[in-house]
Amino acid sequence: MVKKMQVGEMTFQLLNAIFLTAFALLTVIPFWHVFVVSITSYESYLNNRFILFPRDISFSSYVTILSDEAIHRSFLLTVGIVIVSTFLHLLITAITAFPLSRYYLKGRNVFLLFIIITMLFSGGLIPNYLLIKNLGLINNVLVFIIPGMFVGFNTILMLNFFKQIPESLEEAARIDGAGHMYTLFKIFIPLSMPIMATLALFYGVGKWNDWFTALIFIDQAKLFPIQNILREFLILGNMDSIRNGAVQGDPLKLIVSNKMAIVVVATLPIMLVYPFLQKHFVKGVLLGSIKQ
After folding, report:
1. Does residue 63 fall inside a structural domain?
2. Residues 80, 217: one domain?
3. Co-location of 232 and 95 in the same domain
4. CA atoms of 153 and 200, how far apart (whole Å)
5. What is the pLDDT of residue 190?
6. Which residue has the higher pLDDT, 43 or 289?
7. Shared domain check, 226 and 122
């Protein structure tokens, strides 16, 4: 009986490994193909459209892309937006979630109800546009930072995480004369790195991949984030709609090599951040989703 269980477990582990390996390959191969095409010469690509290994390696597409002023500006703008908005989002979320996680806050259920309502209903695109216009955020870099800086779902995740922290720590801090802000920033936040990293990943990735905001509220090329530059490449195949575009020459060559290169440039930074936050990700989501 024991041997049968061991054989069954080994079979399951083998099938599980095969399935996960196949799934991983299905995930990695498209990214690898994009990178290979971006460094493969145009002639080699025409002879073989699906390439797993680079042929006649050329980095001219990256030289073209990375030497363009519009891409430099949009890349730095996107990095700044992600850093500033993520920091402010975590700050506001923590300041909101901390008092709502305390049992002694009067009317906390009413405040939670208001947050839940924002998760269920929205005004729609037109009222949102009118609001942004009246706030003077059209063609303003702050339109990427201020709207959506508070997210109800993320607040509830952090709130539930704060509930896991023993109340005795807060009571000890209050006995020593610590105020609420000191307790939050010196005790709760240092103990909440898993949920902080998780929400930073959620919000940072969302801001990095955001192209719709600029599509609706921005019509100045100098304020385009990197995803809108990528969109121009993918849809239009050139930089004509962006002032001082990078690409000249054969448009087909642009569609193949430069397009793949800009995809890599726009995707790689956020992919490099994830491994540093991965160890906190599962724990943060698990504990933040448990209601007590």
Report:
1. no
2. yes
3. yes
4. 13
5. 87
6. 43
7. yes
Q: Tell me: the pLDDT tens digits for 109-165?
A: 898 898 888 888 888 888 889 999 999 899 999 999 998 888 888 898 888 888 888
Cβ distance 225 to 144 under 8 Å? yes
Tell me, yes or no, whether 40 and 185 share the same domain.
no
Residues whose CB is less than 8 angstroms from the CB of residue 215 and which lie 6 or more positions away in sequence, other chains included? 228, 231
3-state secondary structure 127-170: HHHHHHHHCCCCCCHHHHCCCCCCCHHHHHHHHHHHHCCCHHHH
Distance of CA 59 to the CA centre of its chain: 28
* Whether residue 210 is found in the same domain as residue 137: yes
Q: Which CA distances in Å does 55 have to 38, 40, 51, 168? A: 11, 5, 8, 64
CA-based nearest residue to 226, from 216, 214, 236? 214
Q: Are residues 150 and 30 in the same domain?
A: no
Q: What pTM does this model have?
A: 0.78
